[in-house]
């Protein structure tokens, strides 16, 4: 239905002549198709089938059941900044938008998930008036997965729950065919996971080329190349104070226990506080060290399958570790790339004090930051180890104490 309404809107819009002036915003509808490769990062994708029988427990693999390809069909609505906004040139024709697509892995163990996401893109290089190289970031919500179920879908160790995060990085070539129509040819790196909110959570990773056809409003092929020279260099030291909350599941060790599975449905709470002095040297980026404090209920936790004498049934039971062992402290280097309305940040750190040696001391975090009003901001990200394994999703609020700006 959304697709039909959008196509109808394109043709209705073509009869409307939009005024092209400095206060107009460019707008675009895109219809996009993707088809590409799934990376073999877990047993499901490799064609694995899990046998739960204790006498012959483990994985067997069938080459015919490998998940090799991924396809999707979707629609996007995009808009840009006003042409007289200084950020239009400074960030090279940035645009924002929302998108929706439905994916297909040709495997009933995964189903046909859909994604609803926000997007941001800009121009890397303009070759001619009608030909450019661009990039785009998608971040949103994905659902309708046939997720892991220990009784009916135990092969699916990639996706533990129906609701997941969708992240996509894209680069593409854009061809302006007429004053209203364009095509885009590029490739995405796409990732789906739930950030360890529901185990198992191996995730799905794809590299998928795409082709899109778009209808544009308030933009034509004579739009000049972006040109911007900043006369203002905001040299200052900002102080960020951040409070974070989250919850997670973990894999449990089954040795010397009666557990039937390492996936125990139990959520552990995580709380954190960070202080980061951020050196601001440009309107496009800032960086600095960060001191990170964390409280994680999962540290030292253990589980077993035990008998309850009151109702004479067996249950999975979890025991928490010592409270004093749940605290940790680390230092990290943080970078933040600022764009209109939001920022993308990343940390790489080292926990010099923690009590669980099973957890790597080196950690990473990546996410987005939105600062809609004054000095307060909100953040959403993923904390990981080994640069690939998500520990949990982070939800944060913070306050920036801005330093005095220095002149060149």
Proportion of beta-strand residues:
over 45%
Q: Average pLDDT value?
A: 89
Question: Can you count the beta strands?
Answer: 20
* Bulk shape: flat
CATH architecture of the largest domain: Beta Barrel
Oligomer kind: single chain
State the CATH topology of the largest domain: Porin
Poorly predicted spans = 1-19
Distance between the ends? 56 Å
Q: Any idea how many domains?
A: 2
Largest sheet: 8 strands, antiparallel, barrel
Q: Tell me, what is the CATH class of the largest domain?
A: Mainly Beta
Can you give the helix content as a percent range?
under 10%
DSSP helical segment count = 2
Q: Indicate the structural class.
A: mainly beta
Q: What string gives the helices and strands in order?
A: HEEEEHEEEEEEEEEEEEEEEE
The rounded Rg comes to 24 Å
Largest beta sheet: strand ordering: 1-4-5-6-7-8-9-10
How would you characterize this protein structure?
The protein is mainly β. The protein has two helices and 20 strands. The protein has two domains: 25-217, Porin; 236-401, Porin (Beta Barrel). The chain has helices spanning 2-13, 86-90; strands spanning 25-38, 48-51, 58-61, 69-82, 95-104, 111-128, 131-145, 164-176, 181-193, 204-217, 236-248, 268-280, 285-296, 302-308, 313-319, 327-339, 342-353, 362-373, 376-385, 389-401. The strands form four sheets. It has an eight-stranded antiparallel beta barrel. The chain has an eight-stranded antiparallel beta barrel with strand order 11-12-13-16-17-18-19-20. The protein starts with a helix and ends in a 7-residue tail after the last strand.
